[in-house]
Design a protein that fits this description.
mainly beta; Protein Transport Mog1p, Chain A; eight-stranded mixed sheet; four-stranded mixed sheet; 3 helices; 12 strands; about 15% helix; globular; disordered N terminus
Length: about 210
């Protein structure tokens, strides 16, 4: 596994309907519910502060999206030749419904740019499928599909955005979904308004 830093690019956030909170038997996980020091299940996870991510399988590269101005890590990206997965975590109020708010916001923004957004039911609950018209680097018109998944924890919300093949062929995206299930969210104990991004950091030893 190689770790790369990438400068931030404009990215469409993704919303969706309320998703049932995670339970103790399935991921994504809440760090407060785990003993990360002694549980071997998470020993090889890459510690990125607010998110702990399992090393991806061969052919998928772990990258960090870094804001060019502030130098802050704003997203985790797992990228392969045929697709990618972007992970971001946000604070949420206990019992809140941030996913529904995000879904409406993304659907509205997508429509403003001439795209479409439709809901579907998946293993994580309600997902949002979008089609956004874009211009390729060589000037050709194209459509960028995304599949947005939302997972609500006790006081956090995880947004996972799939692009490329896993966005248009959900039936063949099992290994991408496994990456989402393996994520550990570490919100911290400090007061945070709903919707504030949970801070991400470079892993220990990263330059």
């Amino acid at each position: 596994m190689r770790l790369r830093r990438r400068s931030a690019a404009t990215t469409q956030a993704a919303p969706a309907e309320p998703v049932a909170p995670t339970d103790a038997g399935t991921g994504p996980y809440d760090a407060d519910d785990l003993d990360l020091e002694s549980d071997a299940t998470f020993a090889d996870h890459v510690d990125l502060g607010g998110l702990l991510v399992a090393p991806p399988p061969d052919g998928i590269e772990l990258r960090l999206q870094v804001d060019e101005v502030s130098g802050e890590v704003i997203a985790v990206v797992l990228a392969a030749d045929d697709g990618a997965l972007e992970l971001r975590a946000f604070a949420s109020s206990r019992g809140g419904d941030l996913w529904a708010e995000v879904r409406r916001a993304i659907a509205g923004e997508t429509a403003q740019h001439g795209g479409t957004a439709n809901e579907r039911s998946g293993d994580f609950g309600t997902e949002l499928m979008t089609q956004l018209p874009v211009t390729t680097p060589d000037g050709q018109a194209a459509v960028q599909p995304t599949r947005v998944i939302g997972v609500t924890g006790a006081r956090w919300f995880l947004r996972a955005t799939l692009l490329g093949r896993p966005a248009v062929e959900p039936e063949d995206a099992a290994h991408w979904e496994d990456q989402i299930r393996s994520v550990v969210v570490r919100r911290g104990t400090g007061a945070m308004p709903p919707g504030e991004a949970i801070a991400l950091t470079l892993p220990p030893g990263a330059g």
